[in-house]
Write a structure and sequence with these properties.
The structure holds two protein chains of two kinds. Chain A is an alpha/beta fold. Chain A contains nine helices and ten strands. In chain A, the strands form two sheets. A six-stranded mixed beta sheet of chain A has the order 6-7-8-3-9-10, with helices on both faces. In chain A, strand 9 and strand 10 form a beta hairpin. In chain A, helix 3 crosses helix 4 and helix 8 crosses helix 9. By secondary structure, chain B is mainly α. Chain B contains 13 helices and no strands. Classes of the chains: A alpha/beta, B mainly alpha.
């Protein structure tokens, strides 16, 4: 079991009366790229929050990078896990530049009472170059478009030098071009840095082709897992999204034509 | 104008109080403006006022009552805002009205003259004593010192609390520290500026600085400068026109804000972008 990076066993998470995860079990190997797909409210984001130590387990066991997750020790774990969320609403007048925001990624590593050194700024500039944002580095963060903001979020995540890369619907609300650019960038990062990557989406068209494995989630449970080809069949999708088979077939055909 | 008044001890005390109070209030104001929680500040100011009146009624030092009740209000609002359970405006509105009600209740229950109570409402910077100044100095030093020491954490928490948490910054602790500092600043400045007016000295200098810069460090510095300037110009006008100093200080800070808003480069975002892009293209 030593080569498992993420080991989730029978995890139950609840937010007051709602049970978000009802006994999910998942193992992820180092360097693996796992796509997590399912309808809204299936527990996909909650699954990510227990990996980065922000979620609170009611039952079950979670071990990430050899750390057993208990309330209170999530703090040290989060420094090793990069997290990119959906496009956020950023105050257009926020007095911070793109470079400042990417530097936040290093704050957890730096720890208290230590300011960024030249080496940290070098890393920030390197990751900005990798995501193709060097030309906007000094622009106020609130002036960027959604796609540019997601590139900055990915750069911030890489500045953290994480061992695990979590992406929670990073392409939601982006236009078609921005969406495919972000997907290409995620693929590039995964292949060049061999980061263990978990990519959550409710939208099949945003599922990167690079996925080694797809996990389907529904009602807080892992509903199925396997290679994208064998799992993402019309039949499975019709059951996952509670849609008649003919409707799934029609939509997928239309999507291909589009 | 006869400036010999500045040779008097009480005036020097007032100038020093305006300096220290201006720095503390306007630094705290940067959090209030950037974290979009102006109502939390208003609410804490009124809670401090109600607490001071309660202490006066019960015969304690008003400072203790003010500090206790403003922290209590922060302790109630903080978790509600943090967890996003209730719209912060709603929860703050409920606590705000309760605090105002309590303040008037304690004022009504108080025996004898109410001049001390009214002084807390309007503020009286000219009667500040040496011990008031020491207290203001301690709070101003604590606020500035903590912001300098924990600037990274403050910056990340202001930008996005969830994101700060996800990179391992203790954002929840930072939020509560900010609320605590806000309570301490309001409490110690209550006697000088007054419960009704203090909030403008927190909000206006920071809001003015917010109009003028895209750099957070610069915003802290500008805000502190505007806070001190509001205090000093306000004092001068109050002396020259013989009107209450709390009012002139607050009105000065509002005028500074209006000037900053009129000349704000952020109002011309599109123009700024076009110019920047043109610069980049020609480079």
């Amino acid at each position: 079991m030593n080569d498992t990076v993420i080991d989730i066993e029978d995890a139950v998470v609840s937010y007051r009366e709602d049970i978000a995860l009802r006994g999910a079990t998942l193992r992820v190997n180092p360097g693996e790229f796992v796509g997590i797909v399912g309808p809204n409210g299936a527990g996909k984001t909650t699954l990510l929050t227990i990996v980065n130590g922000l979620g609170k387990l009611v039952h079950g066991r979670v071990s990430v990078l050899g750390h057993c997750l208990t309330p209170g020790n999530g703090h040290c774990l989060r420094k090793k896990v990069g997290y990119v969320a959906q496009v956020q609403n950023i105050d257009p007048r926020m007095p911070m530049s793109v470079r400042d925001v990417v530097m936040i990624g290093r704050y957890g590593l730096l720890g208290l009472l230590r300011g960024p050194r030249r080496h940290d700024w070098q890393i920030v500039d390197e990751v900005l170059e990798l995501v193709g944002m060097t030309h906007l580095a000094r622009r106020p963060i609130g002036h960027l478009s959604g796609g540019e903001q997601q590139r900055v979020a990915i750069a911030r995540c890489l500045a953290q030098e994480p061992e695990i890369f979590l992406l929670d619907e990073p392409t939601a609300s982006l236009d078609w071009k921005a969406k495919s650019d972000i997907l290409d960038l995620v693929k590039l990062i995964h292949s060049s840095r061999h980061l263990t990557t978990l990519f959550v989406t409710h939208d099949l068209s945003s599922l990167p082709l690079a996925c080694d494995r797809v996990v389907l989630m529904k009602n807080g449970l892992i509903w199925g897992e396997g290679s994208p080809k064998e799992l993402l069949t019309d039949d499975n999708l019709s059951k996952l999204y509670d849609m008649p088979l003919w409707a799934v077939e029609k939509r997928r055909r239309e999507a291909v034509l589009a | 104008m006869d400036l010999s008044i500045f040779g008097y001890h009480f005036m020097q005390n007032a100038i020093l109080s305006a300096f220290l109070g201006g720095i503390a209030c306007s630094t705290v104001g940067v959090f209030v403006v950037l974290m979009h929680m102006p109502f939390i500040g208003v609410c804490m100011a009124h809670a401090a006022f109600a607490g001071a009146l309660l202490a006066l009624w019960l015969g304690f030092d008003p400072l203790i009552g003010a500090f206790a009740l403003s922290l209590l209000s922060a302790a109630i609002i903080g978790p509600l805002a943090d967890r996003g359970e209730l719209n912060p405006e709603t929860s703050v509105g409920v606590i705000f009205s309760l605090m105002l009600g309590l303040a008037f209740l304690f004022m009504g229950l108080m025996p004898g003259t109410r001049s001390t109570a009214l002084e807390l409402l309007w503020g009286s910077i000219l009667t500040n004593t040496r011990s008031d100044i020491i207290l203001l100095g301690v709070v101003a030093a604590a606020v500035v010192g903590l912001v300098c020491l924990f600037y990274k954490e403050v910056q990340a928490t202001i930008f996005n609390r969830d994101m700060a948490l996800s990179v391992g910054v203790p954002a929840t602790l930072t939020l509560y520290a900010v609320l605590f500092l806000t309570g301490a600043t309001i409490t110690t400045s209550l006697r000088s500026i007054g419960g009704l007016l203090i909030f403008s000295l927190i909000l206006n200098p920071a809001a003015a600085a917010y109009q003028l810069t895209y750099n957070m460090k610069r915003m802290f510095l500008l805000s502190a400068a505007f806070g001190v300037l509001s205090g000093w110009i306000g004092l001068l006008i109050s002396y020259a026109a013989d009107i209450p100093s709390g009012a002139t200080i607050v009105i000065t800070s509002s005028v500074i804000f209006m000037i900053a808003a009129i000349f704000s480069p952020k109002r011309k975002v599109k123009g700024w972008r076009a110019k920047k892009l043109a610069d980049e293209n020609s480079a």
